[in-house]
Design goal:
It contains 15 helices and no strands. It is an all-alpha fold. The protein starts with a helix and ends in a 5-residue tail after the last helix.
Length: about 375
């Protein structure tokens, strides 16, 4: 009798099969209302019509290696474009025999960013790591010393140039944006006015205009015989533009801080710099992680705008390869390849920001 009672009790408490597992999830999320049921069926029909042809084009009928003559436009995807043009897309006009230097420079930049992702390394020594990395990258790219052949900056291009503009730009723009945000909230009228004018003036014009001015108009104001590298001018324009937007995001985080935090820090005898460094900024910057990462992701993608000043970034090198009659008919494959590169880097930044936000929020009550 006891076993029968336990069996009966188990059977009574066990939920129906239609309410648990895959069936339960489908019922509660996709078929829970007549409207959702109709929409689910329509979407499944659309997938049935779209996905098989895409798979057939991208994988079954595709060509992965060989010359362009082995591809037939309108049939399968011609992924042979990638191995045939990969070196130019990544390095641009960088000399073929020196491309190992460009590859090493990219690995150093990405490695430094990954190394900086650990919060335990956020110390003064990290600034020296970044400074040393930038010096090594500059030596590798410019050459002329240590037995390295000199390479003109006009030969830099592709993913190499995109990474350099984005990594250096974001690294320099973030602290500058924080300083501008603090300056805009300063009690000193002169500093506050300068910060307001700078931020509003920069945010009032598109990045294309700043790049155009840096490439065309700025050299007109230089003394005769004085020139500044075009890549350096574009880099400064990107830094100034991104910093202005970061400043407004950080200012929002500072304004969101309760007044009691300022009063508590002052009651402990902390001066302004100690209060900001130890109490206010860590909390404010944590609040604005999502919008800050959004700006940095946009800055990474906006480096493609340097094409208007004749710099061969990742997108521009891709477009240049499509001017070759052999590959002109396969622009879809080329742009899908470039889009995947952008997606990988942007998704990595977004994933890190979510992980960082979770780490900083651990142990807090909501």
């Amino acid at each position: 009798m006891k076993n029968e009672a336990q069996t009966f009790k188990t059977n009574v408490l066990r939920p129906p099969v239609t309410e648990t597992g895959v069936i339960g999830w489908l019922k509660s999320n996709l078929f829970n209302t007549p409207l959702n049921t109709v929409l689910t069926i329509l979407i499944l029909l659309a997938f049935y019509q779209l996905i098989p042809p895409v798979i057939k084009w991208a994988f079954i009928d595709s060509v992965w290696f060989g010359p362009s003559s082995g591809c037939q436009p309108g049939e399968g995807a011609c992924w042979a474009y990638i191995p045939a043009n990969i070196r130019f897309v990544i390095f641009g006009l960088f000399p073929a025999e020196e491309q190992w230097r460009g590859l090493l420079a990219m690995l150093i930049m990405v490695g430094t960013v990954v190394y900086s992702g650990n919060r335990d390394r956020w110390k003064l020594s990290l600034a020296y790591v970044w400074f040393g990395s930038i010096i090594v990258v500059a030596i590798l790219l410019l050459g002329g010393i240590l037995g390295l052949a000199p390479v003109e900056s006009t030969q830099w291009g592709g993913l190499l140039l995109t990474l350099m503009l984005s990594v250096v730009g974001m690294t320099a723009a973030y602290p500058l944006g924080v300083v501008l945000a603090l300056a805009r909230r300063s009690q000193m009228p002169t500093i506050r006015t300068i910060a307001v004018v700078y931020i509003e003036m920069i945010r009032g014009v598109p990045l294309i205009s700043m790049l155009f001015m840096s490439a065309v108009m700025f050299p007109l104001f230089l003394p005769e015989g004085v020139t500044i590298n075009k890549i350096f001018r574009a880099q400064v324009a990107i830094i100034m533009f991104t910093a202005a937007y970061i400043a407004e995001v950080v200012r929002g985080g500072l304004q969101a801080m309760p007044k009691g935090q300022y009063e508590a820090a002052e009651s402990m005898g902390l001066n302004y710099f100690q209060m900001m460094r130890l109490v206010i900024l860590p909390q404010a910057l944590k609040i604005v992680i999502p919008p800050t990462v959004g700006i940095l992701v946009s800055a990474f993608k906006d480096t493609s705008l340097v094409a208007i000043i004749s710099l061969y970034d990742l997108l521009k090198t891709c477009q240049s390869t499509l001017s070759d009659p052999r590959w002109m008919a396969f622009s879809t494959e080329a742009f899908i390849f470039i889009a995947m590169i952008y997606f990988v880097f942007c998704y990595a930044m977004s994933s890190y920001s979510r992980r960082l936000e979770q780490e900083l929020s651990a142990g807090q009550s909501h």
